[in-house]
Each structure stands twice: as C-alpha cells, then as structure tokens.
C-alpha cells in the first residue's frame, strides 16, 4: 500500500471533491482518481460514491477513514523519529504558543534552553491564545503558553508570570510639571483589543472617565507597538512586552492616577506532565524570574 494513496484518500474524504483534492496535493485529477482506484482494488470495495458534482464516503470508506489517518500519522511519526535520531535528538516537545510571546521574549529563552538541552527537539506552533487549549487538548502540542485561561476543563493551567499593565505613548510625550493625564487621551487615539482578556473590562472604565476618547482596534501587540512608535496612538500593554522599547526610549511610560489597571498573566497549559514538560516549565519560570 502506497502512503500517497492514503494521503489522497484522506484529503478527498475531507473536501469531498477530486478537483479540490488535486489542488491541495498539487497532483493531477487523473492521479487522484488512480490513487483511489488502486486503494479500492487493494481493499476490494468502493470508498466513494458520487453525489452531484461531489463525492461522499461509502459505508466502507467511513469505516476505513480512521485507520487511514492513523497509518499516515504513524508513517509521519516514524520518519520524524529517524530524522531526530540522525540529528542527535532523543526527546521531543511540541509547544503551542501565543504569537506575541513567541516573537518577544521567547527567542531569548529558547536560545538559553537549547544551550542547556541540546538533545531535545522543539517544534513551535504559533497559535492564537483562544485556540491554544484546543491544540493541547487534542494532543497536537505537549504544552501551551497562552495569555488566557483555556476553556477546556480537562486541562491544567498555571500562571507563570503576572505582569502589570501600563499606559505607553510615543517617545515625544515627555512628562512635565504641566502634564495632565487627560491630555494624552484627547491628543491620541486609544489602541485597543491587543490583549485577549482585559479590554472588555478596561475600555468601559476609560470611556467613563474620558467620554470623548477616540479608539482604534488593533488585535496584535506587535503591531500596536509599531503604531505607537509611529505616533498613531497610545495603549495599555503588559510591561514585560514593552520593557525593551522603554529602555531604548522608543516608547515612554505614562503614570495613571485615575484608573485601577489590570494584571496580565502568562499561562502554562498542559494535559499531562512528563519529565520534559516539567523541566521546560521550570526553565521558563526561572528565565522569567531573572529577566
């Protein structure tokens, strides 16, 4: 049995269309048909039946589909294990991580982690925080690093970093004796919803204090920082994630007296903890503590 036949079968079962299957797999439509026919000859049964312009699985196809997926997964895993062995790895970790964590402090941590653990192969899946729990729950990741608590009750989570949210502004806004907090909200748009948790609570409180504030929704922290540095607005961001820009003078911190600001959390999400996961968590915690 050719693994390509199985890959074609599983893709065709998902899209229920041979033309779409050929586009996804970058093979010709006659090749798709040939792969399915070869598989049907081997199994001595039909796997699809026509339904208008599309196809649907027969009862035999529905029975065979889970096994085909397992065979592909086993094949891919076997190749990966051999490749890891050739590269000198004897352990593997797959991590689902929120985009901004992955692009900010995580590279510095990984560099240190690899120096101390050269035998561990790490795969990074960059996933939005709301979807990280699903990745861990379905076994697509050994652990998750998220900015929000997962919805899946079967998962364990732990806050490994608590960070104060602060107001940041373009560097040309230097505080003086005549500086007033409300001035900054009148001058700039408030960039919102760059964090998946605290804006639904924080924004109404800001509007209650400053009813005329203008807002602009930007859903990524990295883009928010770039917009602020370009003078397009101000925002409330976790201090850890703007620390470098504050030290370099690219952004400035604006103290707030009128608002009780929230705390941002970084969560370590797991379904089951083995030695590699526990060691990774401890290494990350120690890195953050000394950052």
UniProtKB/TrEMBL annotation:
InterPro entries recorded: LysR_HTH_N, LysR_subst-bd, WH-like_DNA-bd_sf, WH_DNA-bd_sf
Xref: Pfam families: HTH_1, LysR_substrate
PROSITE patterns recorded: HTH_LYSR
This protein's UniProt keywords: DNA-binding, Transcription, Transcription regulation
Domain of life: Bacteria
CDD domains: PBP2_LTTR_substrate (cd05466)
Gene3D superfamilies, A to Z: 3.40.190.290, Winged helix-like DNA-binding domain superfamily/Winged helix DNA-binding domain
Domain (HTH lysR-type) ranges: 1-58
Family that this chain belongs to: Belongs to the LysR transcriptional regulatory family.
PANTHER family reported in the protein's UniProt record: HTH-TYPE TRANSCRIPTIONAL REGULATOR, HTH-TYPE TRANSCRIPTIONAL REGULATOR CITR
Protein name: LysR family transcriptional regulator
């Amino acid at each position: 049995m050719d693994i390509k036949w199985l890959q074609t079968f599983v893709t065709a079962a998902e899209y229920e269309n041979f033309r779409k299957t050929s586009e996804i797999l970058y093979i010709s439509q006659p090749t798709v048909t040939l792969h399915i026919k070869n598989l049907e000859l081997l199994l001595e049964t039909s796997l699809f039946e026509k339904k208008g312009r599309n196809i649907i699985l027969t009862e035999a196809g529905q029975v065979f589909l889970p096994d085909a997926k397992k065979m592909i997964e086993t094949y891919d895993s076997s190749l990966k294990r051999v490749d890891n062995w050739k590269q000198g790895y004897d352990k593997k970790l797959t991590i689902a991580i929120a985009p901004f964590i992955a692009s900010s402090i995580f590279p510095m941590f990984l560099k240190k982690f690899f120096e101390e653990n050269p035998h561990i192969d790490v795969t990074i899946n960059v996933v939005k925080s709301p979807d990280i729990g699903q990745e861990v729950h379905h076994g697509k990741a050994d652990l998750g690093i998220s900015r929000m608590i997962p919805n899946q009750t079967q998962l364990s989570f732990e806050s490994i970093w608590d960070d104060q949210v602060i107001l940041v502004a373009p560097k040309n806004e230097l505080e003086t004796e005549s500086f007033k907090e409300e001035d900054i909200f009148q001058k700039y748009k408030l960039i919102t919803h760059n964090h998946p948790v605290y804006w639904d609570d924080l924004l109404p409180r800001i509007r209650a204090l400053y009813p005329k504030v203008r807002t602009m929704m930007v859903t990524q922290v990295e883009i928010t920082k770039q917009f602020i540095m370009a003078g397009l607005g101000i925002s409330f961001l976790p201090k850890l994630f703007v620390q470098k820009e504050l030290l370099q003078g690219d952004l400035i911190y604006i103290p707030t007296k009128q608002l009780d600001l929230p705390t941002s959390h970084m969560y370590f999400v797991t379904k089951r903890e083995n030695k590699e996961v526990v060691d990774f968590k401890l290494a990350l915690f120690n890195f953050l503590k000394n950052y």
